[in-house]
């Protein structure tokens, strides 16, 4: 075998080994994040949401918060509320005075609030990415590429706080060029949540004149 060809083959083998090591490091880090998340009774997150598409000249910024307890959640976002009680998803839009009630199955294919801290567990190829210093905090990024080639998502960068093992930032790039960034401003755990937070009171909204839509 010619020396040049042998050198190229050795370089390819080394590159493949490094990529495998990086993928293993990324998986180990995300496994640590998952273990911490599952160890909490509940989680309350305040976040900033930024959507940008340069081609369409669209930019949208807002803030929101979500409370998570197992699969149940309460989300306050863009002037609307959404809660999942373990059975149904309720979306409350005060501006329209309406409530939409849906089965959980309607969330399939999306990163729902109940999955936002664990969605990366399956369906992605993992790559070790950059380490960034953010005001003294070390943020390690892991790149997730959907295995499904029909996915509308091109890639996701997940920024992990190296010290706390909490998710700090999610940057999703769509195949249409839209970039969505979610930055965690506050991450609190084991909070004294109201007992009724994940319970929908239909009578309250019908008494207030809300229109109830069942899908």
Describe this structure in words.
About 7% of the residues have low confidence. The chain has 2 helices and 12 strands. The protein has a single domain, classed as outer membrane lipoprotein receptor (LolB), chain A (Clam), CATH 2.50.20. It is an alpha+beta fold. Strands 7-8-9-10-11-1-2-3-4-5-6-12 form a 12-stranded mixed β-sheet, covered by helices on one side. The protein is globular and about 60 Å long.
Fill in the keyword field for this structure:
single chain; 215 residues; alpha+beta; outer membrane lipoprotein receptor (LolB), chain A; 12-stranded mixed β-sheet; 2 helices; 20% helix
For this entry, what is the oligomeric state of its chains? single chain
Distance between the termini: 67 Å
The CATH homologous superfamily is called: Lipoprotein localisation LolA/LolB/LppX
CATH fold category name: outer membrane lipoprotein receptor (LolB), chain A
Provide the β-strand percentage band: over 45%
Average pLDDT score: 86
> SSE order, as H and E?
HEEEEEEEEEEEHE
* Widest sheet, order of strands: 7-8-9-10-11-1-2-3-4-5-6-12
Which of globular, elongated, flat, extended, rod-shaped describes the shape?
Answer: globular
Number of helices, where a helix is a run of at least 4 consecutive DSSP H or I residues: 2
- Using the 3D structure, state the CATH architecture: Clam
Number of strands: 12
Largest sheet: 12 strands, mixed
CATH class: Mainly Beta
Which consecutive residue ranges, at least 5 long each, have pLDDT under 50? 9-19, 106-110
User: How many domains, in number, for the residues?
Assistant: 1
The percent range for helix content is 10-25%
